[in-house]
Write a structure and sequence with these properties.
Number of domains: 1
Order of helices and strands: HHHHHHHHHHHHHHHHH
Strand content: under 5%
Distance between the termini: 28 Å
Largest sheet: none
């Protein structure tokens, strides 16, 4: 880190970077869209080519589960991850009939495809959030994070919901900028919750958007958004009640604490939480750099930061208290989506921070260290 910071002075790096990015800035909208689509397509091929060969016990169980459930019920579903499992099981059904794909490869393909879409959306989000001068900071910062391993063909049920979480954060920003209605982030989060209950940890951040709507006196928008938030998951649950997932079994899902039991919650334990801390460093290596950002008051309490801080706070609480049933490292993907709001919050505020000595050198050092750290992990799980 020290070497990179000292050897990449800002007066050399910044002009070169600006010159390279100026080419993108001069392109027309249609060309930018085609370029973003090309980057997304390339990313998909890259993700699939380096797909994760480390499959945890839950992932290894999907093959037998799909072979049993799909012929009997048409799909495999649970209340914890209704649409995520449904989409994966139906995708396997069609690709196995057409191409003879295994359950594992169908997961890997769809996870990588979600990654390609994620990259395209990230490019658009970075441009909207930070403008044409700083968007690259968010894109490279998030792209270098370890949680991106989700999109390297992960065989689990967290990739599609992570993609939807990015859509939600983008929709939340659009609402705060008065570029869309409250119904949009509400609908996106409702769909995300229908894919995986993990997205419900974002409800507090959505509540903040409702508070903003109250201050704006958007009474009709609030009513429509609230109705949408309830109606979409309710409709999904009602549909599957008559298609292989009776409502009665919801009591044994994580939504109800597995019939009221508390074994899913972690009690304070030095060894366990040491592993959790280590995993957080794997998922988002610059996480400790929040300390100087906070200490030097570089995180302003503007509306989008408050929105993201609420998301981060709840997700950090989830990571610290929700016990990994398979062990911390086997269950790494259970916690990976929590790193997305961390990464957005950090890199947005780093990019916007003024009067930082050799900011370009520090940023390059953090991204390089994060990328080496993350992709060494990704490649190790590929070979």
């Amino acid at each position: 880190l020290v070497v990179v910071i000292l050897r990449l002075p800002s007066h050399r790096l910044v002009p070169r970077l600006k010159a390279a990015l100026s080419t993108v800035e001069t392109l027309g909208s249609r060309t930018k869209i085609l370029l973003a689509a090309g980057v997304g397509a390339y990313s998909f091929v890259w993700f699939l080519g380096l797909r994760n060969q480390f499959i945890n016990p839950d992932g290894m169980a999907f093959s037998a589960k799909f072979h049993a459930d799909v012929p009997a019920r048409g799909a495999s579903v649970t209340h914890d991850e209704i649409l995520e499992l449904y989409v994966h099981s139906r995708f396997w059904y069609h690709t196995s009939r057409a191409f003879g794909w295994s359950v594992e490869y169908s997961y890997q393909f769809l996870s990588s495809l979600a990654g390609g879409v994620f990259v395209v959306l990230l490019l658009a989000f970075g441009w909207a959030l930070l403008g044409e001068k700083r968007w690259i900071v968010l894109v490279l910062g998030i792209g270098s994070a370890g949680f991106m391993q989700l999109f390297f063909g992960d065989v689990e049920n967290y990739t599609l919901v992570t993609l939807l979480m990015l859509v939600y954060f983008f929709a939340g920003w659009l609402y705060l900028e008065a570029k869309t209605g409250l119904i949009v982030p509400s609908a996106v989060l409702a769909v995300a919750i229908s894919f995986h209950l993990l997205a419900a940890f974002l409800l507090l951040s959505l509540a903040y958007l409702y508070v903003v709507a109250l201050h704006r006196r958007q009474w009709l928008g609030i009513a429509g958004a609230a109705l949408t938030l309830v109606a979409i998951p309710a409709a999904v649950v009602a549909y599957f009640h008559y298609h292989g997932l009776p409502l009665e079994v919801i009591r044994t899902s994580n939504a109800f604490g597995q019939a009221g039991k508390l074994q899913r919650f972690a009690t304070p334990d030095l060894a366990y939480h040491g592993q959790i801390t280590s995993l957080l460093l794997l998922l988002f290596p610059p996480v400790l750099c929040f300390v100087p950002l906070v200490a030097y008051r570089r995180i302003a309490l503007d509306s989008f930061n408050v929105f993201m801080l609420l998301a981060v706070g709840v997700f950090v609480g989830y990571v610290l208290t929700w016990r990994a049933a398979l062990g911390v490292y086997n269950d790494w993907n259970l916690y990976a989506p929590a790193a997305l709001p961390l990464a957005i919050l950090f890199w947005r505020n780093f990019a916007r921070a003024d009067a930082l000595w050799n900011k370009a050198g520090i940023g390059a050092a953090l991204m390089l260290t994060s990328a080496v750290h993350s992709y060494a992990w990704i490649i190790a799980n590929h070979v």
